[in-house]
User: Fold this.
Amino acid sequence: MIALCDVGPRDGLQTLPRIFSLDEKRHVVTELVAAGLRHIEAVSMVNPQRVPQMAGAEELLESLPDMPGVTLSALALNRKGVERALATRVDEIRFVVLASDSFSRRNQNMDSADSLAQFAAIAPIVKQAGRRIVGIIATAYGCPFEGEMSARRVAALADAMIAAGADQILFADTIGVAAPADILRVDRACRDVLDGVPWGVHLHNTRSTGYASLFAALERGATIVDAAIGGLGGCPFAPRATGNIATEDVHYMLDRQGVATGLDHDRLSALVAWLAERVPDQITGQLARAGWFPVRD
Amino acid sequence: MIALCDVGPRDGLQTLPRIFSLDEKRHVVTELVAAGLRHIEAVSMVNPQRVPQMAGAEELLESLPDMPGVTLSALALNRKGVERALATRVDEIRFVVLASDSFSRRNQNMDSADSLAQFAAIAPIVKQAGRRIVGIIATAYGCPFEGEMSARRVAALADAMIAAGADQILFADTIGVAAPADILRVDRACRDVLDGVPWGVHLHNTRSTGYASLFAALERGATIVDAAIGGLGGCPFAPRATGNIATEDVHYMLDRQGVATGLDHDRLSALVAWLAERVPDQITGQLARAGWFPVRD
Assistant:
């Protein structure tokens, strides 16, 4: 069973030139749920002065209706972000530790080791509060400043996060450089460390390799897949990072692979069309334009 | 060893809104060779009244310099096209038979069976002339009019083309619908039939699955890969068909997979930039914009 998490409301919107209103953000989340998504990364508990697109996280979460069966996630980069998330209704907190120290200092103002120490301190608190804690290892496949990342370093981070209580591990290709061989390389290094802990991938299609890497990850046993509606996305602190793999295109590929997702293509396409009216140049997903195949009656 | 064939001068240019001049076409071919390509599908021996972009095939071939070690290919859809190609310098003729009868009637004005009969008649003549004959099975993974194709039908076509003397078989995803599972499905059906005959794939990235399908094909032993510089491409008779997988993006993916191609990224990027000046909306390859990784000194 593949758990597809739409990170559009967070990763998708966080770098857009246009700031979405509370109503618009709510529309995105509720339409994703209406289209069948059961896991949404809805907010980032980041300083809105640094990422104005992510302001109003608490208000958005409060304004959402009850959505039975839907896991709502918040991204957090530090202890303060986790505390903010714990004061809301989110079911899951996704905490980012970067494999690259250079990137970590720019993105979260601390070294990787400090970030990991914060994770270790807060993970038990999140679990005690009855929420799921997910460890995201960002720049797992490469950093714009440091280049390729050591798979052993990534494995050491995964090991430490699992020891601290991470319920799941996500490997994030923050800047969209991974190819299938990179997925395999990191997976080989992490195999013993993961030891049954569910893991997944967060991929950007910056160099056209995102869907190939997804296929490779699924072949290696990944069960959590991040994607963003419309293929929106980027990273505020990564030069030239571009869109996530697109939810609607992942839906198509998984369908052809025989993987049931429960998603509704027409409903997803309608949401892509709605987004395209607002940020026409930012849509990188292709399904809404190309159409389903075979054409459904 | 992977043989990467750039089909940009043919598949890339054949649907562009702008018709390239002879000089421009020659620039594309010679720059591809300068960037390291050793196999170019340079022309289509199609009726220029049906596809005006492809007019002047003979003139283009005559105007090209000697290019030692480079295999020049011509596409042909019928006997007349093959005869035209044999009167030129091309090293290889790629003959298209469509798995879909409906598409075959629109694209080449005959049924699949008639097309196959023409192939069987001309293949020995091509070989006797000392040229390579390649059988392309188009719409191998799906047809816009008939939907999914039977893998057994595709295998029967491959079998007949090999019996007639095909030196290589290419499976073409003419309308960009294949996912890795489709590649595997067709490969399973064709495994016994191929029996050592080199085979490859011609993929369009219309639904974001092109590079994943390429990865799957390489894992199954494909050794011939079609791609088009800039990810240009389409099919004049296929609604909403879009670009081929892009040569420069395939180069990146293969490089990360540890597959040597001998290509020069900077030179490819320069050609993409040249194309982007002429057909800015048609570039679907991402590498020229995203940049190589890791950044090379």
Summary: Chain B has twelve helices and eight strands. The interface with chain A takes residues 142, 147-148, 175-182, 205-212, 214-216, 240, 242, 245-246, 249, 252-253, 256-258, 285-287, 289-291, 293-295 of chain B (CB under 8 Å). The CA atoms of residues 16 and 53 of chain B lie 7 Å apart.
